[in-house]
Design a protein that fits this description.
The radius of gyration is 20 Å and the shape is elongated. It is built from nine helices and no strands. With 186 residues, the chain is mainly alpha-helical. It has one domain: Tetracycline Repressor, domain 2. This is TetR/AcrR family transcriptional regulator.
Length: 186
């Protein structure tokens, strides 16, 4: 008598592994993220890691790409016409909220952002992720501003978010609004 084994399907396994990798990086940093740790967090067999990913670099690229897409979507949503940001002044108001609310909501997101920046600074193959992320931000800002102003505002958003996150006495919203208006020539 032959026993037929049923194969367990898990259509979301790869996605769960990527989500677990993002969480592991946020908690342990890139250096502390391992296949074993991610597999345990995703509740998958360790062999799934090598089945779905060629190595740690591919997993890190997928994790950071997923994270950058999520942040870019938040940026686009906050600055979209549905949010009332359909003119330069509306975009500036939305940027203030983005800097003081959205980009301050999670210390895990700060860690992920700076882990990605550090990795991209050291390893050119990861720069594509940051370049795609910057391009997406500038494209959204380009709906209301010329390319030079969009680049200037995008750089300020990154810097101001970092300062607000790490400064024990962060700048108030009105100071952020004033700086953005000056950078936008308003």
């Amino acid at each position: 008598m032959s026993v037929q084994r049923t194969r367990r399907t898990d259509p979301r396994r790869r996605e769960r592994i990527v989500e677990a990798a993002v969480a592991c990086i946020a908690e342990h940093g890139v250096a502390g993220t391992s296949h074993r740790r991610v597999a345990q967090s995703a509740d998958v067999p360790l062999g799934s890691m090598t089945y779905h990913f060629d190595g740690m670099d591919e997993l890190l690229r997928e994790a950071f790409t997923s994270f950058a897409r999520r942040i870019s979507a938040t940026f686009a949503e906050r600055l979209g016409p549905a949010a009332g940001a359909d003119d330069p002044d509306g975009v500036i108001d939305a940027l203030v909220d983005l800097i003081h609310v959205d980009l301050q909501r999670s210390s895990a997101e700060h860690v992920l952002t700076y882990e990605l920046y550090t990795l991209a600074a050291r390893r050119p193959e990861f720069r594509e992720i940051t370049q795609t992320w910057m391009h997406a931000s500038r494209e959204v800002l380009g709906r209301a501003f010329d390319p030079v102003t969009a680049r200037r505002l995008d750089a300020y958003v990154e810097g101001a978010a970092l300062h607000i996150a790490l400064d024990p006495d962060p700048q108030p919203r009105e100071q952020t609004r004033t700086a953005l208006r000056l950078l936008a020539g308003r």
